[in-house]
Amino acid sequence: MKKFLLMFIAVFFAAVCAAGCSPSGDKTLSGDKPCEIPTANSQDDMALENVSEAEVILEENEAPAEFSDEFSIHFEGKEVDLFNWDNEIELSELLGAPLAEKTEQLGPGADTFTGSFIRELTYDGLELKLFSPRENGTDFYIIMMKLTENRYLTKRGIKVGDNLEFLQETYPEISQVPDGKDDPQNGTYRFYEGDNPYTFIDFAVADGRITEINVVHEFP
What we know:
- By secondary structure, this protein is α+β, with helices and mostly antiparallel strands.
- The chain has two domains: 2-61, no CATH class; 72-217.
- The chain has helices spanning 2-19, 40-61, 86-89, 91-95, 164-170, and strands at residues 72-75, 78-81, 100-105, 117-123, 126-132, 141-147, 153-154, 175-176, 187-191, 199-206, 209-217.
């Protein structure tokens, strides 16, 4: 039995030497580097890398922490802003029960947004579109507000039914969206702030009057 044990130990150390390292991690006789066994620190670094990657994905789909209140609607002394989270502003209490509601999960065709969720809510004269990252799926933030009745106003007081002249006085920054037609009385006028073209307000105009207002955030 003792002889067998000595033979086992000899074979074990021969195998270790052949692999080019010692079980203690010291330098071998050949001068090669010792075997590297992941330490607690290296495992932590790997975990942090994975967390960082997840945070990047989440941040790409998250609502911004700060945003302009230009992209808000006002009605009956209440206010709803683009990027508001439904649970934080208690949307159901502000607007009541929707006339219609639809929620869907985005499929492979949505590219980096695959697995995320879109919710559409329809009210009288108002439609909302909300977004939830795939890591969430429970809480949603607003990415579009469509106004079709004059009870809803923009921050500057523009509503459906106002004329084009009043719109241009109130929003001197707006410009008509090119549509191949040279008719200022019929078309879409767009407002956005600074150098961010992805968050904007579109005013649809027909015969010189606003027929629809869309407060929108588009993902780049």
